[in-house]
Specification:
The complex is a heterodimer. Chain A has 2 domains: 219 residues, Rossmann fold; 69 residues, Alpha-Beta Plaits (2-Layer Sandwich). Chain A is 41% helix and 24% strand. The two termini of chain A are 43 Å apart. Chain B is built from 14 helices and no strands. The radius of gyration of chain B is 21 Å and the shape is flat. The two termini of chain B are 26 Å apart. Classes of the chains: A alpha/beta, B mainly alpha. Chains A and B meet through helix 2 and helix 3 of A and helix 1 and helix 5 of B.
Chain lengths: 357, 287
């Protein structure tokens, strides 16, 4: 279990990480998401004790990373943003050295290294010199290094960077597999990756946690309840008919890519009123070409969160310590949404359109 | 610590640095052995060792430039500093590895005094003493190189910096001999030293008040000492530099005096630089 409390890092006047708190529970894969420069790597460097925090504490399985640093590090496997591999060593020599510094018993080594190298898929390059390996293989050697000693906590900083698409899928499978035995914190700026691998996602921007939720809830939260309907016929009549339907919050025209058609965005609130929409349009004499929910992906959730347009769900499950600060963010968001509701929707609609194209 | 020593030694011999060092070391020592002992028909092996001192300028940087600079460049320092190793273990491990390689070189060159002993009466005790002193001095210079390596992530910068630092260290006797000896110049020298210490103090504590108070105190003491005991300031610079000089200490071994104080001096000197190295690493993490 990893507990991070009020972690802050200040460089001069720049607050790289600003008072963040979270917990990664045993056996959980937490995705740590944020644009470049958001503070992900700084946070991870503090969590592993590579740099010290200006304020706040990090506890790994109950050991403080600064006060009880040796015990805390024994619990920890860390893959930094650049895999920390020695170019001049052979893969086997390197892993043997990592066994040395992590004090793995000689008797357990052979079996452990066989297992780890086959898990991350580097069994076939064990005799090769690291600097001659491709970036993807070096990344895997870096991951193998983190696994040496089977630490209960893994911290992986952008583990799929530099891999080709096949390797990325493979790496995700490996991480998911590892998640059964280890507690994992994984950072990424690739959203689909987090969606594919993680149980829970935490989004960080400008050094602050701006959202923390399950992957599923984040996608739901971002999608709102927007239905897209493509029609043939008089758009004003359609608008009128739709506004008369009970449960419709708003109707907006949006750009249509098909000749002779128009497209409308209907905010349907919380009720499922798709049947009513169809009936209303048909009785108004309008042909429906398409009706579909404006499914927003994690990508959109991410953009909305980063732009401060995301309503924090009430049920998001963070620990009590982080509550106060996150509530502030949530308050700010609500105000923001109230004031600029139309603006926010505009941006959502443009997102949805670009997605369709 | 053993893990670090093993890894560094292995790296020395996979990157050819180790072979280059050993080859060059034995070659130069052999050259001086031929010119001083064989051509000079002398039984005094310390003459060879004195002659080889100059090669420390090149060989110590070769040994030490990579140690920390390369870790920083390859980002492998993240592995070391997040592993269950203490920073002291890492620093001392690297120091021991470099010293061991130096010791291996020294062990190979022991063939030269052995050759001497076949052709005459070799002063065994004196030779053992002077070789020990030579080894201790080499270790001191290695600790300086190690310290400079931790300051940069560029091996070339580390090598050039080490060269400059060792040059100053080996020149110290010369500088001391030419230093001004008047009392006033000594007082100014001490004042500058105090200023340097104050700057270090301030950068460490960031406390203006504390630095000012200790600064005023130090300068008052200096002024009082200058007024009351002016004899203290007779050629202070020369004495201080002479006391600090690494070479000066070696003279004692060379003259056949195996003094405990000189051994303590060398050990303290190396320990101080290792401590500085550890501090730089710790400070970097805490800044």
């Amino acid at each position: 279990m990893i507990e991070v409390k009020n972690l802050t890092k200040v460089y001069g006047h720049h607050r790289a990480v600003d008072n963040i708190s979270f917990t990664v529970n045993d056996g959980e894969i937490l995705g740590f998401l944020g644009p470049n420069g958001a503070g992900k790597t700084t946070t991870m460097n503090m969590m592993t004790g590579f740099i010290s925090a200006t304020e706040g504490t990090v506890t790994i399985n109950g050991y403080d990373i600064l006060d009880d640093t040796i015990n805390a590090r024994k619990q920890l496997g860390y893959l930094p943003d650049v895999p920390p591999v020695y170019g001049e060593m052979r893969v086997d020599e390197y892993l043997d050295f990592v066994c040395d510094i992590k004090k793995v018993k000689k008797s357990e080594r052979a079996a452990m290294l066989d297992d780890i190298t086959s898990t991350v898929g580097i069994s076939n390059v064990r005799k090769r010199i690291v600097k001659n390996l491709s970036k993807g293989y070096r990344q895997r050697v870096g991951l193998a290094q983190a696994l040496v000693g089977y630490p209960s906590v893994l911290i992986l900083d952008e583990p799929t960077v530099g891999l080709d698409p096949g390797q990325i899928i493979e790496m995700r499978r490996v991480i998911k597999e590892l998640g059964k035995r280890h507690t994992i914190l994984l950072s990424s700026h690739i959203l689909s990756e987090v969606g594919a691998v993680c149980d829970r996602v935490m989004i960080i921007n400008n050094g602050k946690i701006v959202a923390s939720d399950t992957t599923h809830n984040l996608e739901e939260g971002a999608a709102e309840n927007i239905q897209l309907v493509k029609i043939k016929g008089d758009i004003n009549a359609a608008s009128q008919a739709l506004k008369a339907v009970e449960g419709v919050v708003s109707v907006q025209e949006s750009a249509c890519d098909e000749e002779g058609c128009s497209q409308l965005r209907i905010n349907t609130g919380s009720e499922d009123i798709r049947a009513d929409i169809v009936k209303a349009l048909v009785s108004a004499g309008i042909d429906i070409v398409m009706l579909k929910p404006a499914a927003l992906s994690l990508e959109d959730a991410f953009l909305k969160v980063i732009n401060g347009e995301y309503d924090m769900p009430e049920a998001w499950d963070n620990d009590a310590d982080g509550g106060e600060e996150l509530e502030q963010v949530s308050d700010g968001d609500e105000r923001h949404t109230d004031e600029e509701e139309s603006g926010a929707e505009q941006s959502v609609s443009s997102d949805a359109e670009s997605e369709e194209e | 610590m053993a893990a670090i020593i093993k890894k560094e030694l292995r790296t020395y011999f996979t990157t050819l640095t180790g072979y280059a060092f050993l080859g060059f070391f034995v070659l130069i020592t052999g050259y001086f052995f031929v010119s001083q002992n064989i051509a000079g028909a002398s039984m005094d092996y310390s003459e060879t060792l004195i002659g080889t001192m100059i090669m420390f300028l090149i060989l110590v940087p070769v040994l030490t430039m990579r140690l920390f600079a390369e870790e920083a460049r390859q980002k492998t320092d993240q592995l070391l500093y997040t592993s269950p190793l203490r920073v002291t273990d890492i620093v001392v491990g690297k120091f021991i590895a470099a010293s061991l390689l130096f010791l291996i070189g020294l062990a190979i060159t022991m063939i030269f005094p052995f050759i001497l002993s076949k052709y005459g009466e070799l002063n065994v005790k004196g030779t053992v003493g002077v070789v020990t002193g030579y080894f201790l001095m080499g270790c001191c210079l290695i600790s300086v190189g190690l310290f400079i390596s931790v300051l940069t992530d560029n091996q070339i910068v580390a090598a050039a910096g080490t060269f400059a630092a060792l040059f100053l260290l080996l020149m110290m006797d010369n500088i001391a001999a030419n230093a001004p000896i008047t009392r006033l110049s000594s007082a100014v020298f001490v004042a500058v030293l105090i200023l340097a210490v104050l700057i270090v103090l301030y950068s460490g504590t960031k406390s203006i008040a504390g630095t000012l108070v200790s600064g005023v105190l130090c300068y008052l003491l200096l002024f009082a000492a200058y007024m009351l005991f002016p004899a203290l300031f007779d050629s202070t610079i020369t004495r201080l530099l002479g006391w600090l000089s690494v070479l000066n200490r070696f003279q004692n071994f060379y003259l056949g005096v195996f003094g405990l104080s000189d051994v303590v001096y060398y050990v303290t000197f190396a320990a101080a630089f290792l401590y500085l190295t550890v501090s730089v690493i710790e400070k970097r993490r805490w800044s």
